[in-house]
Amino acid sequence: MDSASLEPSLYTVKAVFILDNDGNRLLSKYYDSELYPSMKEQKNFERNVFNKTHKADNEIAFLEGMTIVYKSSIDLFFYVVGSAQENELMLMSVLNCLFDSLSHILRKNVERRCLLDNMEGVFLVVDEIIDGGVILESDPQQVLQKVNYRADENPLSEQSVAQHLTEKLALTTNVSFY
Q1: Can you give the pLDDT at residue 79?
Q2: Where is the AP complex mu/sigma subunit domain (predicted)?
Q3: What's the total number of domains in the chain?
Q4: Is the pLDDT of residue 169 over 80?
Q5: What is the rounded distance in angstroms from the CA atom of residue 90 to the CA atom of residue 86?
Q6: How far apart are CA 6 and CA 149, in angstroms?
Q7: Contact status, residue 65 vs residue 32, Cβ threshold 8 Å
Q8: For residue 41, what are the contacts with CB-CB under 8 A and spacing of at least 6?
Q9: Do the Cβ atoms of 80 and 43 come closer than 8 Å?
């Protein structure tokens, strides 16, 4: 094995993806452009991972020279992929942070429909945890604070743009002239 490939690197995560219970992609981010450069190769890899893991009760798998940690919830499968020599505990901390953050955003209703209804928040969470394959955060409370999400507030997606603009216009036109 090449000694350069064993040197420590900040680029820990190769990919993150979320699949539904049929193996269909709901979200995927690949951080190593050389790993699976085309969409076809990515989907083929995801299909192979899903076929190996969707009936297993484990939390870790090794496939195509990759270390894969995963977790399922109702009708979703969450995956974090690293290289073969990557520390499984680090990958698992990313997976747990992702799952716990999304669980909070989705109000403990981690299922396909809710995930699709809140995709903007899902992308924000993933981007706060990982940037270019580098783990930025593994504490769900810090991630939620950074995305500035509060469970008692209505996200913009629950309010149409027209409603939002109407409210802003109403606030700015309530000016009295003497």
Answers
A1: 95
A2: 12-150
A3: 1
A4: no
A5: 8
A6: 38
A7: no
A8: none
A9: no
> How far apart are alpha carbons 68 and 84 in whole angstroms?
9
* Joined tokens for residue 153: 């507030």
pLDDT of residue 162: 58
Interatomic CA distance for residues 54 and 77, integer angstroms: 8
Strands (E), the chain: 13-20, 25-30, 60-63, 66-73, 76-83, 130-131, 134-135
Query: By residue range, what is the domain housing residue 35?
Result: 11-173
Spatial CB neighbours of 99, under 8 Å, sequence gap ≥ 6: 71, 73, 78, 110
**Residue 38 covered by a domain:** yes
pTM: 0.77
pLDDT in tens, 139-158: 999 898 888 754 445 554 55
Q: Which residues of 39-61 are buried (b: 16+ CB within 10 A; e: fewer)?
A: eeebbebbeebbeebeeeeeeeb
Per the structure block, which two tokens stand in for 171?
């606030």
Identify the CATH number of the domain in which residue 95 sits: 3.30.450.60
Structure tokens given for 37: 């450069």
CB atoms within 10 A of CB 94: 22
Residue type, 8: P
